[in-house]
């Protein structure tokens, strides 16, 4: 899982995926005949099928390289940065976090996210009732204002800092959404043998702000079948009701039935289910009431594509503690590899 650690710790807010893209391109090169990067920054590896040209399908895989992050929107007289979110944050996950600021687009600065206002010791009961909003946070770089203005500017990218680690039967870190999907895509491709159809493996950009990279790359590729690889919610934690668990950690790869961006092709769901059963790969069925994946983008280009999402169950999605079970990651790799090897 060394590769997953590198992917997780890489810097890659939406629209600034270059560091992740470099890693993905380097991994895809030995696995694909051709690797290219398109205008938006999607990395596309093509592994040609062995079948006769006429009968070959175009199968597109998409795993997004971007993570949720911020963009510096204002620098005040004291040198504190205000930030604008790029992606969906729960403000409670921002308390007391360290961040990396890519100052003037090149040098890395460590900063602290804090909420504007008084420390707990000085708060009145009125202060405590105030709503916590993402917009209430600022970044302290520990530098005087003049130095901050030399090193940072409006438009600089900010992501949070968190080292990747193993924990029990799990792995945990930032940006498992969706570096774990990227990892599954690469590892499955490594395991593929004798594919009849053409496989287009795409590390997509800007998923977290609206499935943008998936749309343009799918338009170019024009897939017959498109498979998104992404995380889904595992709400198997205290005080969650059984009917709103979505998935559970350690119960296998999740075959998505639907979410708010797409309804999976029913025949593909049946096909993946049958393969999982035949190869004894643990799986679960998933319905996500809110949220989407690149499948929603890929489904809607040109005349449409048959789509499905293979999801990796993750606890604490969109926090620095995104956590996945190792067996679920393996199940996702195994199922994708057997599907592609047909
Ligand atoms: Co996400
Ligand atoms: Zn995602």
Report on the structure:
The protein is an alpha+beta fold and 342 residues long. Helices cover 26% and strands 29% of the residues. The chain has nine helices and 17 strands. The protein has helices spanning 2-9, 18-28, 125-129, 145-151, 176-191, 212-221, 266-278, 295-298, 326-340; strands at residues 34-37, 43-47, 58-64, 69-75, 81-86, 98-103, 107-115, 137-140, 157-160, 165-167, 170-173, 198-204, 225-233, 253-258, 283-287, 306-315, 322-325. The strands form two sheets. Strands 1, 2, 3, 10, 11, 12, 13, 14, 15, 16 and 17 form an eleven-stranded mixed beta sheet that branches. Helix 1 packs antiparallel against helix 5 (176-191) and helix 5 (176-191) packs across helix 9. It is globular, with a radius of gyration of 21 Å. Bound molecules: cobalt (II) ion and zinc ion. Zinc ion is lined by residues 64, 177-178, 207, 230-231.
**CATH homologous superfamily annotation of the largest domain:** Zn peptidases
Mean pLDDT across all residues, rounded? 96
Strands, count: 17
List the bound ligands.
Answer: cobalt (II) ion, zinc ion
Assigned CATH architecture of the largest domain: 3-Layer(aba) Sandwich
Strand content: 25-35%
Shape annotation? globular
How many structural domains can be distinguished in the coordinates?
Answer: 2
> What Rg, in angstroms, do the CA atoms define?
21 Å
Q: Assembly state here? A: single chain
Helix fraction bin: 25-40%
Order of helices and strands: HHEEEEEEEHEHEEEHEHEEHEHEEH
Main pleated sheet:
11 strands, mixed
* Poorly predicted segments: none
